[in-house]
Design a protein that fits this description.
One of its GO terms (cellular component) is cytosol. This protein has helices at 33-43, 69-84, 118-128, 207-213, 215-226, and strands at 25-28, 49-52, 88-97, 146-160, 165-178, 193-195, 200-201. With 227 residues, the protein is of the alpha/beta class. It has a single domain, classed as Maf protein (Alpha-Beta Complex). A 7-stranded mixed beta sheet has the order 2-1-3-4-5-6-7. Bound molecules: 2'-deoxyinosine 5'-triphosphate (Y43) and magnesium ion.
Length: 227
């Protein structure tokens, strides 16, 4: 048979569009239950089941040594795909704040220190932006006080160990950093991220609304188009 295009059922060299398919399961290389929830919601309509590293034994912690979201997504996906032998989707994401020169960026999860939680990271963000500073100007529009333009960025990598290749994508969403947290939904920096188009914080959106406009939702749409 001709080299390169050989493909029979049962071959380990699946076509890319078979990696994520209705009735199939995709492993997300994450311990972040907030991410898993959002992927589960997004994959539900196309009949794909989602699992993560909280439900997978024997995967050691993966150090995020990259300096870009794309590098970190690739290294998480590749490592877990090689260890498990199955295709793996990884998400590396974070918040880039203009007034902080793009920080915390790839360090978003460890902004307040290694192992810091969302609460400490949000507090650190507000303190770096001087949110405690006296504020006298009333917002004429009745809109909440914001401190800087910002964006969430999400890089995705879907790594297939059968072919040692990956499909990648990136998505963003623009917003403003709130001076005070609002909302209970979502995770991470969502309570401090104002979405002008909705007139609500990211943590005040329903899961469907968030997936429709978020960096993760946008990256996933693009990834699925590439498969
Ligand atoms: O939609 C989001 N809404 C709010 N905050 C978000 C979002 N997306 C990422 N973020 C923040 C959370 C964390 O501070 C960092 C991700 O860091 P990142 O290393 O990609 O994830 P992680 O360490 O929580 O889990 P894991 O590496 O196991 O996937 O950006
Ligand atoms: Mg991480």
């Amino acid at each position: 048979m001709a080299k390169g295009n050989a493909r029979r059922s049962g071959s380990p060299h699946r076509r890319r569009d078979e990696v994520i398919r209705a009735g199939g399961t995709v492993l997300i290389a994450t311990k972040n239950r907030g991410k898993t929830k959002e992927f589960r919601k997004a994959f539900e309509p196309i009949g794909v089941t989602v699992t993560d590293l909280n439900e997978t034994d024997g995967i050691p912690p993966i150090e995020e040594t990259g300096v870009t979201f794309a590098e970190n997504a690739m290294l998480k996906a590749r490592e877990v795909a090689r260890l498990t032998g199955i295709p793996v989707l990884a998400d590396d994401s974070g918040l880039c704040v203009d007034a902080l020169g793009g920080a915390p960026g790839v360090y978003s999860a460890r902004y307040a220190g290694e192992g810091a939680g969302d609460k400490a990271n949000n507090a650190k963000l507000l303190s770096e932006l001087g949110a405690g500073t006296a504020q006298t100007d009333a917002e004429p529009s009745g809109e909440p006080r914001t401190l800087s333009a910002a964006r969430f960025v999400c890089s995705l990598a879907l790594y297939d160990p059968a072919t040692d290749t990956a499909v990648t994508s990136e998505g963003t969403v623009e917003g403003l950093i709130l001076a005070e947290p609002r909302g209970e939904a979502g995770f991470g920096y969502d309570p401090l991220f104002w979405v002008p188009g909705f007139g609500r914080s990211m943590a005040e959106l329903t899961p469907e609304e968030k997936n429709a406009i978020s960096h993760r939702g946008n990256a996933l749409k693009l990834l699925l188009e590439k498969l």
